[in-house]
Amino acid sequence: QDEEKWDFVLVSDIHEVGSEKEIKRKKFLDELSKKGFTIKKIEDKKLFYGVRAPKQIFQKYQGLLRKPNNRLQNPNVHQDVPVTTRIQIVNFILQNTTTPDLEKLHDLMKKKVFEATFPLHEKEEVREFLKEKWARWRGIFCQQPIEKIRCYFGEKVALYFAWLGWYTYLLGIAAVVGTVVFVAGITVFSSSQVSKEICEASNTIMCPLCDQKCSFWLLSDTCTYAKVTHMIDNEGTVLFAMFMAIWATVFLELWKRQRATVVTNWDLYRWDEEEEELAMELINNLQHEPQQYQHSYFRSTVILLLVLLMIAVLIGIAHALVIYRVIAMALFTQSNFTFLREQANTMAVMTGAVLHYITIVVMTKVNRRVALYLCDLEKPRTFSQRENNFTVKIFTFQFFTNFSSLIYIAFFLGRINGHPGNYVRIAGKWRLEECHPSGCITDLFIQMAIIMLLKQTISNVMEYLVPWIAHKLRKKQQRPKKRRLILGEEEEAEDPCKRQWLSNYQLNEVNIFSLFDEFLEMVIQYSFTTIFVAAFPLAPLLAFCNNLFEIRLDAIKMMRLCRRMVPRKANDIGIWLHVLEAIGILAVIGNGLVIAITSDFIPMQVYKYTYSPCMTENNTGVDCSTGYINHSLSIFRVQDFEPYTNGEPGLAPTGLCCRYRDYRNADDYSYTVQFWHIFAARLAFLILFEHVALCVKLIAAWYVPDVPQFVKNQLLDRKHSNLHEELRWVMPQKV
């Protein structure tokens, strides 16, 4: 039965005898035969070649990478190589076997000599267990069998699921705290003094929000919006932002401990990827010379410039989205529908968010092509180096794709648009959009909510439906031919391999980026969950709910819908850890900026402790934020409007003045002392928040050791026993 186990299957179209493709295929298979591979051919609509490597290859591998003490004790004993390692070695040899025409499998697949190459899903105990217990929706709250995943898919996939499980587990804590903060906002802060003042401001006339067809309006019209704003923009959110900065650090430190425990149990703590790769190169070709490390400053400079150019393009797309919102706002305000006119700002933000999501989907594909092209220019030495370079580039591009628009809304919207009588305009025509009268944080909240909901619903549905439909279609196409063969050629249909190879071929293709895509999706989600969490406290809850499904979704895809991934050894999550640490620092900076710049938290505190009735009149009987709204609105004389501002004066006759959000003098519209006071307070808070948060992060990183003590002791004992064993073998020889 063991003789019928095949390591890999190569699939090819049936080419004409004597054709170029047929000759190339024969040359490649001859090279494999020279290396001692057993090859079996089965013909159907396609040609299937099963390949099995000779035992000597695995014996060489064990001999090269055996631990020193094992080598001394039993030099001739060879245990079976795990299936995952076996597939990995065979894949390496297949990918690096060169034909007399100096072509490798990769080149032959480009030229359509071979259509597919994959290891088989075997009907073994581990697979049946994973299909029944892990790749099921009903196991959504059950612990993952990481050890079994490792036995079937290898260490890299097992570490991904271990990391995802750990991340989801700790997200649960952040989700609970975020929900508590949000509920507290609904119950406690929605009835704040500031909201009351806005709801009661029926005499405060505000300046028109657009040039044409916009009337003067009453501040009390935005009562509901104000309540929503103060659900998010309150003292609780500041504490939650600080909590999330600490959570991000503690999560990574605890993951490092978890990872150390897991890889020590696998005996991979000191594993050397470079040594493994060199061993496989030598097994494949004894004459192999290692590729030397090289660095070209010229090439690095060219790549850096191209990366900066791509970032500039992505920022340009964010500018295009801003221009869209400005024009959409102008068009909505001129609409014949009353609802669109009244809700023009909200509609512009919401449609802008949907458009932003579409640009994310499109640019993700473009970013991948560009990142791959840049990696080819770099000419990395090894596959793992190529993977690391690709990871950094694609993450950088994806970060700007996802966050450029959010950065604009958070830190620039409503701050660079000028003031009544002197608005900043695009092409001298459309005036730049303003924040909502209740504050800028609401716009950021809407944008975050829409993007996270769309990303996590549409993307997940597509991620499952596309492979499922593709699998069903492939199965349907194969079935009729298969039945005819069974009826007409019984002797061939009896082959036990045929059905298994066909069913594996019908599954969806996997490639070297299949796992990478899952990681990237989760790391971008982690960025959303931490960087702007001050504006959207429900982000951890949405991420937590998404991840519960994501784990099972990935499991079902890998076990039931896709071909078997080529296992890879690993002892950590690689460069992703550095990316996550960078996001942790960006989260501190991002949340500090949101609270200092986007939120009204600082202006309110400055008012409370400097200008409020509590300070000026020593009146302790009133709420200290009484009068804040009146204090934060400037006065504008209607006669100073630009000539083409055609507001409908509706409410204007009383005093011919209107109010707008800013701190400016009524006579010459220059900034008031309060503006500079608040500006200084914002800056001071930002510096203080970031220094305190970073210090707390550093203390947390120091307080929680990366490696648990028992793991260190285990490694110490292992070193001691190895040296002891060496000594026993060395001493008798001297005697």
From TrEMBL:
<dbReference type="InterPro" id="IPR007632">
    <property type="entry name" value="Anoctamin"/>
</dbReference>
<dbReference type="GO" id="GO:0046983">
    <property type="term" value="F:protein dimerization activity"/>
</dbReference>
<feature type="transmembrane region" description="Helical">
    <location>
        <begin position="573"/>
        <end position="597"/>
    </location>
</feature>
<dbReference type="InterPro" id="IPR049452">
    <property type="entry name" value="Anoctamin_TM"/>
</dbReference>
<feature type="transmembrane region" description="Helical">
    <location>
        <begin position="390"/>
        <end position="413"/>
    </location>
</feature>
<feature type="transmembrane region" description="Helical">
    <location>
        <begin position="302"/>
        <end position="327"/>
    </location>
</feature>
<feature type="domain" description="Anoctamin transmembrane">
    <location>
        <begin position="149"/>
        <end position="715"/>
    </location>
</feature>
<feature type="transmembrane region" description="Helical">
    <location>
        <begin position="523"/>
        <end position="549"/>
    </location>
</feature>
<dbReference type="GO" id="GO:0005254">
    <property type="term" value="F:chloride channel activity"/>
</dbReference>
<feature type="domain" description="Anoctamin dimerisation">
    <location>
        <begin position="84"/>
        <end position="146"/>
    </location>
</feature>
<dbReference type="Pfam" id="PF04547">
    <property type="entry name" value="Anoctamin"/>
</dbReference>
<keyword id="KW-0812">Transmembrane</keyword>
<feature type="transmembrane region" description="Helical">
    <location>
        <begin position="157"/>
        <end position="186"/>
    </location>
</feature>
<keyword id="KW-0325">Glycoprotein</keyword>
<feature type="transmembrane region" description="Helical">
    <location>
        <begin position="347"/>
        <end position="364"/>
    </location>
</feature>
<feature type="transmembrane region" description="Helical">
    <location>
        <begin position="237"/>
        <end position="255"/>
    </location>
</feature>
<keyword id="KW-0472">Membrane</keyword>
<dbReference type="InterPro" id="IPR032394">
    <property type="entry name" value="Anoct_dimer"/>
</dbReference>
<comment type="similarity">
    <text>Belongs to the anoctamin family.</text>
</comment>
<dbReference type="GO" id="GO:0005886">
    <property type="term" value="C:plasma membrane"/>
</dbReference>
<dbReference type="Pfam" id="PF16178">
    <property type="entry name" value="Anoct_dimer"/>
</dbReference>
<keyword id="KW-1003">Cell membrane</keyword>
<protein>
    <recommendedName>
        <fullName>Anoctamin</fullName>
    </recommendedName>
</protein>
<keyword id="KW-1133">Transmembrane helix</keyword>
